[in-house]
Structure formats: C-alpha cells, structure tokens
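Input structure tokens:
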C-alpha cells in the first residue's frame, strides 16, 4: 500500500504540500481532484521519489521513499507514472519505445522485452501499431502507448497525472476506458483528473485538494453528492 503521512513539500519559499495524509490500499483507485496549483502533480512526483520532501513520510509497501538507503530505481519499477504530456522517442517505433526500459533498466533480452511489449500494447488496443512511429499516432493512441510503456515494467502501482487533459475531446474516452480496464483488473491507482464522471464511476475514493491540503476525501457519492468542505462545493459548482 501507499502511505502518505504528514507530508510537507516546498519549492524554495513556496509551500506546496502542507501536511498531506493519505493511505491507498492495494487494489484501490483514488482520484485526486482540485484547482490548478493545489499541489496534485507535486504529490505524485513525491510519491515516486522524483522530488524530495521537507518532512513527513511516504511509504510504498513499507519502504520509505525518501530514506537515504532506499533504492529509487527499484522503487520506481514498482510505481509507474504517466503524465499529461507524453514524451515518446520520435526515432523509435512504438514497439521499441515500449521495450526500451525493460531492456535498459531490467536488463531483459530483446525477445523477452518484445514479448512483454506486444502483450501490453495489445492490452491497450495498439497491437496493429507496433512498427509505426509515434508521430503517426493520435494523441489518444500516444497516451495508450505511454500506459503500455509504464505497464511493461510490471508496476504494482500506477500514478496518472491528468493523462487526458491535453487530448482532443473525442480521444478522451479511449484513454479513460484504458484506465477503467486497469482499475477493473485490480491495479492500485492514483489518478489526478478533471474528468468528474471518471472519478465518480471508477474510483473507490475521491480526494479534493485545495492549496496544498487534502481538504476532503471520501467515496464518490459523498464528495459529489454531499461535499462537506466549502471549497469542495465551490470547486464542484464550477466544474459541473
Ligand atoms: N519544480 C517546481 N519549482 C517551483 N515551483 C513549482 C515546481 N513545480 C510546481 N511548482 C509550484 O507548486 C505549486 C503546485 O503545483 P502543482 O503540484 O503542479 O499543482 P497542480 O498539479 O495541482 O496544478 C504551483 O504553485 C506551482 O507553480
Ligand atoms: Mg498538475
């Protein structure tokens, strides 16, 4: 499980996370919603050790992400992350984009890595795009390739940071369907999202962030149906 305990994070003088507590159980899907600049992306980058924190603890299956003794490379294999903006290697085929990390980081043979890549690309509906270059993919296909690339490392946790925000509205559905499929398969996921229907239908709990604080968390029925916090109410009345 992912345990986030009293996490404070600053960039210089700017306090971005002000004592965040959150525990995500195995198999759980938690959506994080909230205004721009509230610290949602920062939390995800702290969870997978891309950013240091000032105080508090983040533990993944008991391993403290920010302890000096922690092997971050090992930890990041366990925790996949997919961002809003997908950075594909333009000179590599879709297949090679997905086999790269398993070969370079996990030391797999090409054949082994290709077997996994083909499986994951098929899983996200890109079996017919193996030899294509990323520039020939639609935005939705590129994001599904990014998801396949993360899955090729066999992560136990997945973090998604507004993976549909840069997409043409017509392409949002196919990416959300992919996330939904992963959720149904039991993947443990934290999804920062502006897609309220997705948050409501797919997550077990929804967390509302406001100015670096996890202001409110609960099952979707509670957060969307009867939000307690004034800021949650304001936020939701603006997005709906
Ligand atoms: N690398 C960084 N350096 C300095 N400030 C940052 C950095 N990343 C984020 N911030 C600031 O931290 C705050 C929270 O950002 P972010 O976590 O991206 O919010 P959100 O994802 O909720 O929109 C913002 O004020 C942002 O400008
Ligand atoms: Mg963000």
């Amino acid at each position: 499980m992912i345990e986030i305990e009293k996490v404070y994070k600053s960039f210089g003088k700017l306090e971005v996370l002000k004592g965040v507590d959150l525990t995500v159980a195995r198999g759980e899907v938690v959506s994080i919603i909230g205004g721009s600049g509230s610290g949602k992306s920062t939390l995800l980058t702290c969870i997978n050790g891309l950013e240091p924190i000032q105080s508090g603890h983040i533990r993944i299956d008991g391993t403290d992400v920010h302890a000096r003794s922690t092997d971050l490379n090992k930890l990041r294999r366990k925790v996949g992350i997919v961002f809003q903006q997908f950075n594909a290697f333009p000179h590599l085929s879709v297949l090679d984009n997905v086999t790269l990390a398993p070969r370079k980081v996990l030391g797999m043979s090409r054949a082994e890595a290709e077997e996994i890549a083909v499986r994951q690309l098929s899983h996200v509906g890109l079996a017919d795009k193996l030899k294509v270059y990323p520039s020939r993919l639609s935005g939705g296909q590129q994001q599904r390739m990014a998801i396949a690339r993360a899955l090729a490392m066999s992560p136990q946790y997945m973090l998604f940071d507004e993976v549909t925000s840069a997409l043409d509205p017509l392409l949002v559905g196919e990416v959300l369907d992919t996330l939904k499929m992963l959720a149904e398969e039991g993947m443990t996921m934290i999804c920062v999202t502006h897609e309220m229907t997705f948050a409501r239908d797919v997550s077990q709990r929804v967390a509302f962030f406001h100015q670096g604080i996890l202001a409110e968390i609960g099952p979707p029925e509670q957060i969307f149906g009867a939000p307690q916090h004034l800021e949650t109410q304001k936020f939701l009345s603006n997005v709906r």
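The CA atoms of residues 62 and 143 lie 31 Å apart. The mean pLDDT is 95.
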